[in-house]
């Protein structure tokens, strides 16, 4: 009997996927297909949850089949992350005019990424205090306790190292190892290695322009190849989001969400305020923030649904260049560095809120000195936070370890992690794009006409 229900559930998902396929054949825009996949996934998840219940054997047996589409899609995103980050950084160097604003661009991008993360930490602290969050008030079940134990084991290696050693670990002793994603800081390792190759290219271009032309042609060819793979994967986005949302909603513990509702509300309040800060930064440079929201909306929705900053990178780059008027070089720098440095949601708001929740449990007062120390540690620890899921957990471990706060209590939020991670990821991506647009504006390289022009249909994803 259960096998019949499993087949029925899978058939239902495939039927919904066929609707998306039909929309694709009718050339419905990419953003509408993504919205449709999101909506159908939520609706189907609610139907499954109400029909079976979270603990139903039929539902549990259906999930592995859903994962073929959902988790399979995420794995394909992860497949393209490292090659895309590597070639994007290299391409950024090839598109930099010799000596033209290079130092200023890099300094502005890094300054904005790190500075906004410090602001995000302050907002996270304020939200936690305003909502009166306290880790001891939250009921812990078996899943939360188990997660806490796992986090303590993960943190053991981190806590044994002082901050300078942790920073030293960012350097890629073996870049080919980092290409496999073997270390938690592999993404920043790949970025650093690509940057060294980029600086080497600039040296060759200055001294041996003919050789540099050959190298640039090869880099451009590889970039075109990687982007072709990216487009193939992105075409699967509506189907992936459909399966991911159906699974997530069907298996969500609504009781736990209600129990942790105050933390969810505080998190989204902080995320919204920080997004408004992004808009304020753009407005301060004379740009229309409403235009930014309209043109970046599809990309932010994709980030929200996929929960992967790295998986969103192709759209992050394309949106900046084709919709917002950012030059290729600045867009590639801001997008790629934003994957592992200064993620406002995962590395800024989240660990700051956790620290404020947990500190009172060990008698640590939330005073000015603690807040300043926390903000500084959050900013420094934001280097090397991976952008493919788990980044927020790694950032929290670094911050809590540096403050000598108990890691295990971070496990109390496992039930609502997916729900909050959606908003955090969208904010991370917005931070990267804000850094790119602002840098281009300040250095006078933004195409203002392109930024202000009326948006064409699916300009950033028209070929999908």
Automatic annotation (TrEMBL):
Localization per Swiss-Prot or TrEMBL: Membrane
Protein's UniProt keywords contain Transport: yes
Keyword Ion transport attached: no
Location (main, coarse): membrane
Transmembrane intervals: 6-22, 34-52, 72-94, 106-131, 185-204, 225-246, 266-287, 370-388, 394-416
Keywords assigned by UniProt, alphabetized: Amino-acid transport, Membrane, Transmembrane, Transmembrane helix, Transport
InterPro entries reported for this sequence: Na-dicarboxylate_symporter, Na:dicarbo_symporter_sf
Membrane topology summary: Multi-pass membrane protein
Gene3D superfamilies in UniProt: Sodium:dicarboxylate symporter
Pfam family, one: SDF
Family assignment from sequence similarity: Belongs to the dicarboxylate/amino acid:cation symporter (DAACS) (TC 2.A.23) family.
Family matches, as PANTHER family: L-CYSTINE TRANSPORTER TCYP (PTHR42865:SF5), PROTON/GLUTAMATE-ASPARTATE SYMPORTER (PTHR42865)
This protein's name: L-cystine uptake protein TcyP
Species, as recorded: Sporosarcina gallistercoris
């Amino acid at each position: 009997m259960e096998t019949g229900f499993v087949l029925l559930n899978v058939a239902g998902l495939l039927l919904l996927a066929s609707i998306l396929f039909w929309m694709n054949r009718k050339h419905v825009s990419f953003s509408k297909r993504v919205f449709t996949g999101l909506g159908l996934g939520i609706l189907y998840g609610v139907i499954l949850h109400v029909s079976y219940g979270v603990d139903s054997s039929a539902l549990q047996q259906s999930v592995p089949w859903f994962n073929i589409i959902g988790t399979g899609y995420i794995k394909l995103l992860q497949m393209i992350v490292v090659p895309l980050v590597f070639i994007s950084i290299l391409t950024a160097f090839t598109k930099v005019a010799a000596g033209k604003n290079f130092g200023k661009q890099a300094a502005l991008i890094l300054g904005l990424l790190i500075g906004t993360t410090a602001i995000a930490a302050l907002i996270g602290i304020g939200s936690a205090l305003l909502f009166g969050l306290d880790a001891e008030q939250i009921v812990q079940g078996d899943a939360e306790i188990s997660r806490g134990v796992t986090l303590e084991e993960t943190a053991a290696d981190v806590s044994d190292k002082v901050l300078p050693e942790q920073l030293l670990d960012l350097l890629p002793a073996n870049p080919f190892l980092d290409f496999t994603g073997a270390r938690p800081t592999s993404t920043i390792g790949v970025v650093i290695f690509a940057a060294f190759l980029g600086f080497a290219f600039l040296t060759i271009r200055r001294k041996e322009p003919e050789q540099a032309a050959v190298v640039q042609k090869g880099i451009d060819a590889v970039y075109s190849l990687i982007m072709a793979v990216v487009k193939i994967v992105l075409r699967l986005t509506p189907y992936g989001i459909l399966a991911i949302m159906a699974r997530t909603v069907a298996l969500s513990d609504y009781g736990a969400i209600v129990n942790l509702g105050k933390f969810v509300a505080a998190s989204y309040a902080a995320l919204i305020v920080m997004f408004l800060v992004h808009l304020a930064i753009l407005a301060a440079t004379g740009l229309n923030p409403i235009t930014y929201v309209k043109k970046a909306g599809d990309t932010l929705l994709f980030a929200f649904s996929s929960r992967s900053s790295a998986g969103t990178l192709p759209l992050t780059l394309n949106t900046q260049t084709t919709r917002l008027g950012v030059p290729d070089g600045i867009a590639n720098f801001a997008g790629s560095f934003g994957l592992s440095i200064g993620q406002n949601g995962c590395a800024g708001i989240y660990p700051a809120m956790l620290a404020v929740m947990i500190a009172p449990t060990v008698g640590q007062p939330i005073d000015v000195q603690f807040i300043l120390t926390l903000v500084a540690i959050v900013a420094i620890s934001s280097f090397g936070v991976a952008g493919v899921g788990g980044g927020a957990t790694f950032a929290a471990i670094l911050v809590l370890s540096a403050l000598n706060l108990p890691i295990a209590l971070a496990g109390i939020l496992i039930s609502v992690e997916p729900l909050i991670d959606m908003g955090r990821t969208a904010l991370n991506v917005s931070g990267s794009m804000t850094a790119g647009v602002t840098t281009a504006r300040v250095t006078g390289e933004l195409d203002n006409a392109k930024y202000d022009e009326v948006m064409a249909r699916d300009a950033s994803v028209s070929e999908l």
